[in-house]
Fold this protein.
Amino acid sequence: MIAIACDSAGFELKHVVMNYLTQNGFAFKDFGAYDATASDYPDMAKKVARAILDGECTRGILICGTGNGISMAANRFCGIRAAICHDVFSAQAARSHNDANIISLGARVIDEKLAIECLSIFLTTNFSNEERHVRRVGMIEM
């Protein structure tokens, strides 16, 4: 199960992403925002982080204007590794090297096509489990 949330700036891109998830058979839970009314990205990040930490979801997708604020808010939670991904290489490395469990997208930074490409890579790339990556991810959790 994938948790997804956005603030008002990410509302339109969230619907593009949810359509992609539905068309490709990914199960997801929408944690808001549910309309384009102004909303606070820290609240949305907290909902997704909690869903992952509580075991309700295994990965998350967060969307705000730049991807910055919402990922900063999510990364305040121990056990969350949210990565801002605005290119395919970053999405692949976030999963394979950093075992990121949340992808953060900036709706005002990348277009819909690139967002879906990043998301596709993020969802289909496994953590490499190489000793150096396992060790470094463990260091994040300290």
Q: What stands out?
A: Helices lie at 11-23, 41-53, 68-74, 88-96, 112-124, 131-140.
